[in-house]
């Protein structure tokens, strides 16, 4: 198979404009004759469904949650990037493009990323027009903050709930279309397979999660916007229901899966507390604007802290190792996520971790310096040029509360510790997956008519995503890319007419789904679904996690293959098919996670270099930084499904061409 | 807006509840000012006030608004309660409402019903007597003249008419040879000419004192009255500031409104309650 | 951190096979629950135990487990989202309970939120209210005016955000003795009423959303304030007052 990225010709900055000018259109009177299915209602899905509905297509939107508003985009905290240069610090479309490519460790497509940067400004305009209440300054203008991997302030935010506000904006646009009858919404429905007719995507098989009914839905195009696959690790910052099933099912039907090994481990999450833990909670990256990360300089101090004999506040300033500031003076605490995460792991592996859990994995995020600085500033601003220490501390805490109040409260509720008084404990956790279904420039997968948007595709973040770029990509795909590219595809479908759902292809796909369900329900094993999911998660975290090496990856591949066998032999699913059955939902998802996990290990094994979130211990420089191999690995690794045995999957390479950017080693020092 | 929404929409029901409720608060204040004359004024002053309240056309208009408010407040309350009961067909096995709301706010319907019962009895005891009781006494004073006690009706024009010279009605007066007889409860008519010569005051003061000082039922009446005022107090504790919220007033003045509402809800019923206690125990 | 310990608890949980069947409270015993666990992790533990006993696990709604998606929805010991304030059920931790406690767990109770199974309810009424007017009618072309073309006073933007922070979990309805949805609707109406973008459609928005709210069978607000106390996002009663104002304004137009 030859991968055609369909990147338009011409200078980089004009590619998208030129491309749009030449895409085919569907006339307004023809649009109502065309059906489109959108699976997933996060930023990408909701915005795509709303836009396509508004254009006049018949849209059917699906989400497994009880409402489209609950998609996991809602949990994004920090912000959304846009090259508006409102802060007059030299930002531009080019810089956003450059930062994103560099942040992704030169493993993303130039053309896609440039398009993303181009439309970033429209996103903010659109959202403001929709009534998204971004943070503002006293003059009434929009406020911005900095995020990791950049030296400008281009991140728009709404307290620590930016994802929520953006999603609710998209949800409101979607709701408007549902109310107008342009979009038919299917809540609590899960896509379990795709239907292909003559090679084209023609519909999906979905399960009504309340009644268990298996439904056939036809359409002229199918858009998959179902998010990332971080839950393959069991513990992650993803929602419990986040899953790879839609993406994996299209993979099994012919869509290539690209760069599965690119996983972002977010540096600032609350550490693991115990074996019953179900999920990890993120503390927004924006906290790194104000917090300083450290561990004790002396191992004995770290031990004493873990034993509960010392408190962090008792460690003297000179005995603290602000290791990010030490190693990366230029970016300090605001290095990209992968860099910050690995640095934390390095310290903890060396024995300086401060959390009293099984693995001692935890470092401090300390706000005391910021409390002093901001307190002093606030006192001066109030005309008090001689503030007392207490006044400074009080004002500083007040400043923090205004800026991060909800995050601090969340932290306190979970850990029972007051972060205004004692530093937060944090540790990296699986957060985002840069890999995903391979798509061309039009966001179309290798199945014609099947488009993939948002985190579910692989396209824009290379090997590492910068903070506040996921929201940008989701909305860019949904609002500003898919409406054009999907229409281009559909221009040839105006004569197709309604697609019947009783064709053999539909019946066959339905039978596939029903068989799988029956098999699991009759399996009569002895172990719960979670048992296997947790086992998979441990293998993935320990061997396909932050630091990877050949031996462990090979072990992982064998162990996962074994786990898969055990799973199919011994999993127990209570209940029946025709009812609300959460265990059945889970087993179908975990089955796909297991296969994906194996492919991730294979992908990590073949990529004999370190880049972004993919760190191969064999490939690092003297200072422990990633060592890319641009000569041999400057490609997108896209895998083709070859049957039930995942180890037989075939790797296809899409060479990455850098025309605009001079490729270089990433340096944040 | 569709006209039907004026009654149907849940928010409009709240407006009506708030408007009628606030009007009734005004009524309470006025009523209290009048009643306090039972303590601070003499019988004449009180009866003059009572006459004013039953005869002045503006007051009459207000009184109709009051009747309407009470009725509408009650009917609207029933509708609200019906809607609210329907909204939760299956209740909770365990509920801990005191964790998040006040007793009064949760029991407005019960408190309101009790108040309605009180209002009805209260009106039967006083208002109905004042308006319809044929045997309602007319205000008279006792003066000592020449060592003899004499009972005299006091007329609205400030004259005195000896009680014994007035017949209960025209027949009595004719029989007993009295010059004057009483008509319409408090009007003095000339027996021969059958024309009105002057007007007296219905003695509501006497009725009231008698009611609360009744040797058998006075104490129980006083206690019930005080209890009713406690119920009213709880109703007002929530109702007063709630009305402002319903009408959309929730701003920088809200704390002041809440404080005023609390004071109003305590002071007004307290002063109301003091009156029968004073009559029963002190007078 | 107060050191985590293990406690044993008794659970009384509403079990109901499906929307049509009659449910009842069932009793379960669960041992060795870490006080560092979240409430939902405790339920995971119970379900693991039930599955191992070949019994049907308890169905409950949950997703993000960090207090933002609004999916979790339990009435715990007589309170929406349990005994702590300012949080959702998924943020409730077992350290709020003691060894030997009996914990009641029930679904949201509202005519407009019918039970689907066990502790899972159908909250699509909220979606329909949103569809009736919870939006600004602007096409998604991106060709709107520049985001900074209309300055918005920080105070208004902040207030709009506070209203928009609603997660649509339905705790307000569940906790309200009247099953009223006015905090939810008030918050949405307020968000748009406070912003210039929302002013154009303000009249129709409030009328349509309130009409839909009434049609869904929610109860009426009697200003008990319980919703504000139990709201995990601290949405203020001010928003209901603002909706009342907006409705009045719209009605008089």
SSE layout and pairings?
The complex is a heterotrimer of chains A (669), B (283) and C (253).
Chain A: H1 12-22, E1 35-39, H2 43-55, E2 58-62, E3 80-81, H3 93-103, H4 110-129, E4 155-156, H5 162-180, E5 183-186, E6 189-197, E7 200-208, E8 214-218, E9 221-224, H6 245-252, E10 257-258, E11 263-269, E12 292-296, H7 299-306, E13 320-321, H8 323-327, H9 337-349, E14 363-366, H10 368-381, H11 389-415, E15 424-433, E16 436-437, E17 450-452, H12 470-490, H13 504-521, H14 529-543, H15 550-570, H16 582-606, H17 630-633, E18 635-640, E19 650-655
Parallel strand pairs in A: 1-2, 1-9, 2-5, 9-17
Antiparallel strand pairs in A: 3-4, 6-7, 7-8, 10-16, 10-18, 11-15, 12-13, 12-14, 14-15, 18-19
Helix pairs in contact in A: 1-4, 2-5, 2-12, 3-4, 4-12, 10-11, 14-15, 14-16, 15-16
Chain B: H1 5-8, H2 10-35, H3 37-40, H4 43-55, H5 57-86, H6 103-106, H7 108-132, E1 140-145, E2 148-154, E3 160-162, E4 166-167, H8 170-176, E5 180-183, E6 187-190, E7 196-199, H9 204-213, H10 218-246, H11 254-282
Parallel strand pairs in B: 4-5
Antiparallel strand pairs in B: 1-2, 2-3, 5-6, 6-7
Helix pairs in contact in B: 2-5, 2-10, 2-11, 5-7, 7-10, 9-10, 10-11
Chain C: E1 6-15, E2 24-34, H1 39-52, E3 74-76, E4 79-80, E5 102-107, E6 115-117, E7 120-121, H2 124-133, H3 154-164, H4 171-175, H5 182-193, H6 196-199, H7 202-215, H8 226-230, H9 238-252
Parallel strand pairs in C: 1-5
Antiparallel strand pairs in C: 1-2, 3-4, 3-5, 6-7
Helix pairs in contact in C: 2-7, 3-5, 5-7, 5-9, 7-9
